[in-house]
Specification:
This protein is an alpha/beta fold and 223 residues long. Helix content is 37%, strand content 11%. α1 (14-25) crosses α6 and α6 packs across α7.
């Protein structure tokens, strides 16, 4: 992957930031892409993505406005949707946070930019991990494989999807990020969108547990 163009979906969270660090370690030419859409925590995500991109300063953060695409969809993550659930990351109630078509839309945009970039082989990258499988159908291996085939066909084999954490647990992703010295202190994962992590939403709990599993403390937690 050295010297290859990679368009990375950078949410500003722990997973995509770890993938950013991983790709830079592989000496890829990373263009971080932030998607603006009407999620309840999108403003906090954007601020975190800007901080992470500025820290790495490999490429400017490309911001893509998808507000119109996701407007009117029903999801607990979106404005106008049901309240956010509390509880375990794999809890049944977390299905309320599924955003219909999100990764399909994200990958289409990433792949379009990758296809238009110079080079015989370019990449679209997502930081999905194994813990997402139970809840989010567009994070599962069978979805990613189908998406890979589609993108290869649509780009005549030029664009490849990169999702190296798809079989890893959240704790394993954080372990890799700690080894790569990913700037977790700049990231944001909370679904609630407040000034500080709520520590009760499923993603806050999963993140905190992942750090604890590695004998570390999330730098966003002040106790």
């Amino acid at each position: 992957m050295e010297g290859r163009s990679v368009f990375l979906s950078l949410s500003g969270g722990a997973d995509s930031t770890t993938l950013y660090a991983f790709l830079l370690a592989k000496k890829a030419l990373v263009t971080p892409v932030f998607f603006r859409y009407p999620s309840k925590h999108n403003d906090m995500e954007r601020a975190a993505a800007e901080r992470v991109a500025a820290r790495y300063s490999a490429r400017s953060l490309l911001q893509v406005d998808l507000s119109g695409v996701f407007s009117g969809l029903r999801s607990g993550l979106l404005h106008g949707g049901p309240p956010l659930p509390d509880g375990e990351y794999n809890g049944e109630n977390l299905r309320q946070t599924v955003v219909p078509g999100r990764n399909t839309v994200f990958l289409a945009v990433l792949a379009a930019h990758a296809e238009s970039a110079e080079g015989e082989r370019t990449y679209a990258a997502l930081g999905v991990h194994g813990g997402d499988h139970a809840v989010y159908p567009d994070c599962r291996p069978e979805y990613l494989e189908a998406a890979r085939r589609t993108i290869r066909l649509s780009s005549l084999g030029k664009v490849e999807i990169v999702a190296p954490f798809a079989a890893m647990s959240k704790a394993e992703v954080v372990r890799l990020g700690l080894e790569l010295e990913a700037p977790y202190e700049l990231t944001r994962s909370c679904y609630a969108g407040g000034d500080a992590p709520c520590r009760v939403c499923p993603t806050c709990r999963a993140r905190e547990e992942a750090f604890a599993t590695n004998g570390a403390v999330d730098p966003l937690i002040r106790v």
